[in-house]
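Thread title: Can someone regenerate the structure for this chain?

I was given the following input by a collaborator and told the matching structure tokens would be attached. They weren't. Posting the sequence so someone can regenerate them.
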Amino acid sequence: SGRVPTNITILPLPPKSPELNPVENLWHFMRENWLSNRIFKSYDDIVDHCCDAWRKLESQPWRIMSIGRKPWANGF
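Best answer:
Regenerated them for you:
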């Protein structure tokens, strides 16, 4: 049950590899497009802006798919 099939090779990931984490790529997109270059008034203001950015992204599933599909990751 815990055996790896012979046609699959397990490769250890580097300890710090955010570019391999799709969620990090989504946050990067949101920071660059909706959350950067602003001054927040309070913690609640930060949370409100993050929630608004998440809702914008959530309403664009095609964008989520394009951010998650990296050409180098799909070439195997």
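The CA atoms of residues 40 and 46 lie 6 Å apart.
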